[in-house]
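Record filed here:
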Amino acid sequence: MTRPIRATIDLSALRGNCAVARQCAGAARLWAVLKANAYGHGLMRAAEALDDIADGYALLDLDDAVALREAGFRQPILLLEGFFEADELPLFTEYSLTPVVHTLDQVDMLASTVLPARLPVYLKLNTGMNRLGLSAEEFHPVLTALETAPSVAAVTLMTHFADADLARGIAWQLVRFDEFAQGCDHPVSLANSAALLRFPEARRGWARPGIMLYGASPFPQDESAEALGLRPVMTLSSQIIAVQELKAGERVGYGGIFTAERPMRIGIVACGYADGYPRHAPSGTPILVEGRRTRTVGRVSMDMIMVDLEGLTEAGIGSPVVLWGEGLPVDDVATAAGTVSYELLCALTARVPVTEVNA
């Protein structure tokens, strides 16, 4: 008999969320960001679901891009960290891939490698994120070098916003980007999910929606995914496999970090950190049992979570449990656990069976 835990991926919700992104984008085109196995949702299933909606796919790993091409996907594919070695460049031409160029080393590799076809490239500018990208001093010499390089077909300018989901916003970086690009007649790519939803001025060229595609909010403290018109794509569900009756003063779980203040019924759920649930989630993290919100208690273990069944007299062995997803936003669970929805979705482990639905 198999454990009752499973993840359900709602492909209609994924398409619907992409439609929201497209509506926000207006005239901008869409790179659907499918990095990290489509944020834990499955690279191939996400690509297939968005095949006729997204204009292209943005990934991180060259192997994933090659796999999409060999599976028959013909959309443009953008590699967000570009290439790491010059000997990868022939694969970019063979599979018609677009690299992001963000270091002088990459520029040198492009300039010194003879390729059978010219590559379109995205040139990343560091406007304040201070993670990847060229400085203001490097930009114009590099742009000139790329414009004249025999291996380069076309250049698109891009940057990434550090605070699009926060009060500081994007204006300060957008000013820097426009200073960089002044006098340049190149396409651009600016908006991530947060900027796409909140800042119309960033909806230029190609947008890069990520987390919003999967039904989570880029700003969960301010605006829920539901309020943004987004639906959860992944629902992680399980069942209660045992019930314990605690007396006042008794403890439960490893380390006994939760003590019952009164007699309690505790449900044991078949899900733990080996399934991708956050081990650091504290007592009080929201969870659904029989469609009603209750709380976790005690320490998350490898294979099990304990939940409070107070007021849930109908709950018992076999009762359905939702860890996150339909009826319980992943953002709520992530906030309680002191993390972000991205981490929870990406953490789903291979041992969890996945079912696709088209609700």
